[in-house]
């Protein structure tokens, strides 16, 4: 998958979640599991890690926003960073598959 495909699946997930309330972000999709915000934040971190790897930079822990409401924008930023890094098709494919899997789980 190309960078364009990654951006497409990120836009789908961001569009799906952009109107969620704080209560929906705080609710786990499965009883006893992590909240939707925790799941998406972990996805954002994984994509940021791929971008750091592609740029030959150290991984940096991203702060979790106080509310999940900012996560769609944070996701778009890290996905664009990954594409701009010149990441290999293998990395963008892995990121796109991860985004699709998370979207299906929410």
Question: How is this structure best summarized?
Answer:
With 106 residues, the chain is mainly alpha-helical. Helix content is 67%, strand content 0%. The radius of gyration is 13 Å and the shape is globular.
Describe this structure in words.
With 106 residues, the protein is mostly helical. It has helices spanning 3-17, 22-26, 36-55, 71-84, 89-105. The protein has one domain (3-105). Helix 1 packs parallel to helix 5 and helix 3 (36-55) runs antiparallel to helix 5 (89-105).
- As a percent range, the share of helical residues equals 55-70%
**Coarse shape:** globular
Q: Give the helix tally.
A: 5
How many individual domains?
A: 1
Radius of gyration: 13 Å
Q: Which regions contain 5 or more consecutive residues with pLDDT less than 50?
A: none
**How is the main sheet built?**
none
The succession of helices and strands, N to C, reads HHHHH
Query: How much of the sequence is in beta strands?
Result: under 5%
Terminal Cα span: 23 Å
Structural class: mainly alpha
Average of pLDDT: 94
Number of strands: 0
Keywords:
106 residues; mainly alpha; globular
Secondary-structure map with pairings?
Elements: H1 3-17, H2 22-26, H3 36-55, H4 71-84, H5 89-105
Helix pairs in contact: 1-4, 1-5, 3-4, 3-5
């Amino acid at each position: 998958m190309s960078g364009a495909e990654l951006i497409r699946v990120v836009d789908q997930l961001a569009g799906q979640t952009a109107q969620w309330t704080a209560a929906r972000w705080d609710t786990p999709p499965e009883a006893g599991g992590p909240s939707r915000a925790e799941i998406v934040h972990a996805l954002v971190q994984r994509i940021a890690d791929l971008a750091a790897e592609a740029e030959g930079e150290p991984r940096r822990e991203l702060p979790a926003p106080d509310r999940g409401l900012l996560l769609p924008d944070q996701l778009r930023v890290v996905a664009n960073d990954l594409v701009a890094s010149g990441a290999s098709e293998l990395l963008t494919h892995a990121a796109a598959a991860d985004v699709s899997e998370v979207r299906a789980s929410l």
